[in-house]
Amino acid sequence: MKSLKNHFSLIIALFTVLFSVQIYVAVDRTIKAYEEHLKNDYSIIVVSNKMLSEAEFKALDNLIERSETIATDQVLERLKGEMSKKNLDLLKVTLPKFYRLYLSRFPTPQEIEKLQKRLQKHSAIERVEGYAQTHDTVYKLMLLFKDVVQIFSIAIAAVTSMLIFKEMRLWQFQHAERMSIMALFGAPVWLRSAVLFRLAIVDAIIATIAVCGAFFIIDQYGWMDKVLQTVGISIELFDFVDDAVRSLVIALGVSIVLTLTIVIGNTEEE
Q1: CA-based nearest residue to 237, from 24, 37, 40
Q2: Considering the entire predicted model, what is its pTM?
Q3: What is the DSSP code (8-state) at residue 238?
Q4: Residue 21 in contact with residue 247, Cβ under 8 Å?
Q5: Where in the chain is the domain with CATH 3.30.70?
Q6: d(CA 6, CA 171)
Q7: Which of 41, 110, 207, 230 suits a disulfide with 14, CB 3.0-4.6 Å?
């Protein structure tokens, strides 16, 4: 019963590490998806005194993906009854050209500032509006959220790793007598410690399966998808191939490294 309790404690500790890592991965994916969503909605308004082609805009900066002309027909239509046709034609010629520039990715505030300066250097461009203040607020909030989750995940992983180390020390004490007998018969260190490695590997596999099961349940209920859809994004919280393999590698890595630490420490004491 005591041995089963130690197993359960290690599995829970490994599960916590893997779950916190996966939460960080999911948050990172969410932010990237939201950046893509913002990139599609975000644009820079340019006012020019002459017609500019899409190729001309792209030549100014690689960040520019495409340009779109903002039609002024509605403005002219409103003035149609108030001005003569001659004046309307003259106004149509002299009216500035308005463009909406779409970017290839969601830019940082520094990139927007540099892009605005490059656009303003063009002789034909009279004004550039990048909505920098709104953009800065959104971008900084996203980065703050990601940093908080990262710090939280690292703190959980560090504390839980210490708990795993203590659990493995208990295993060592439980199997001390058997390992001492094997040492008297000349068994090498790796053979004496084989049971510790076997237990660590088995619990790492169980913890990985538990994490996969937890995210499978979350995915089946779909409540996270509903939350994400409210902001117009959709992501895969858990990839049952790549994420499962990564979780298994992390669980095995943590277990084996901590077991090696205990075994090497015990060997030095001998």
Answers
A1: 24
A2: 0.68
A3: -
A4: yes
A5: 43-130
A6: 8
A7: 207
